[in-house]
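call fold(seq) -> tokens
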Amino acid sequence: MVGNTYPYTQDTWASDISLASSKGLDAFALNFGSDSWQPDRIADAYAAAEASGTGFKLFVSMDMTVNDCSSASDADTLFNTFVAPYLSHPNQMQYQGKPIVSTFSGETCTFGQADTNSGWLYFTSKASMFFLPAFNNDPSIAASWSAVDGLFPWNSGWNYQPQNEAVIDTSVISVLGGKPYMAAVSPHFFTHYGADSFNKNWVFPSDVFWYPNRWALVVSERDLFDLVEITTWNDYGESSYVGPLNGAEPTGTTWTDGFDHTPLLDVASYYISAFKTGNTPDITQDAIYLWARPHLKDASAPDPIGQPSFADTTDDLIYALVFATSAASVQVCAGSNCQTFSATPGVNQFSISMNPGSGMSATMTRNGGTVVSVDGGSFTVEASPQLYNFNIAVLGLERDQLKLKRERERNLHLSLQVQVMR
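ret:
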């Protein structure tokens, strides 16, 4: 979301690209709006990608809910400012030999032409491109438009009311007539802006291990999906981010402070490898990923915006996703309320009830020794919240823990060296 990158420098982009690349991501889709400063941020992103030397790619995605599209000059401006400068850029992502250009929405844009298809034909005829929009109209109509090379159903990434992802996937693929399909995978969705702001207040349920299960579905049916997009890297206002909280959050965003999602990048890395290769990767490091909301779904808050829509469809559970190299015992705790599970080699899913007034933690043991331990620190399930917050806090075997692990291994190595020298 370029709209959340106002304070970014080329170095910030470089940091994001380095992190994303290390987890197996190949590209960023740069969703841009109408702010005058956004072209400069996109230029910085391309410059950072080229300087990285990783081959990391980028492509632009036009947010047509805010960009004008009623006249031919609107199409000219979008193309000349955001598309043309990067068509031959070494870090421009291509598909089927053409630069990808995408959208969010745009199904009613005409660019001054007779109809939507003619409008987008006017746009796409300006250069050779692979047009992969996220249109929100009937997919059988969108797929029939000659301007469209493939479709990206944005809402396939969530347990979207009233449909689920399998319905969206199959219904769109069935009408594409062989055109490529880009699937969405997203960890969460919660937004809470009042009528005096963006007027958005709802949660899409992401319980029952939605994120890893969505990934597992995409992997198991990988032959159906040509591309996969994680939505999103940094949409803080809709709680769908997997990247770090280092951008500019929309005014009134009260639900992200202390709610890190970056451990989910490690989860994604496992499934990305499986999707690309068709083989489930060996688990070479034990890990636990925990997440939960900060209050029960029925908690009452003196919040003028009110409880979000679909709150009653969520679960009051702490989720533990466990990657085990071999059989182990896993204890998951809501404060002092703990439950022990048996983990088998591979990916395991455990959950316990949230406990108001308590935090969350988990420990893996094997052969009498602690292998992995994660602790929520100051995170607490509030009994009486002041504001509604259906975002999730995510814990995992994070970089600090890995650093400590490597330091312990280094100290052990040095100790052994000293003993040998003696």
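Residues 398-422 have pLDDT under 50 and may be disordered.
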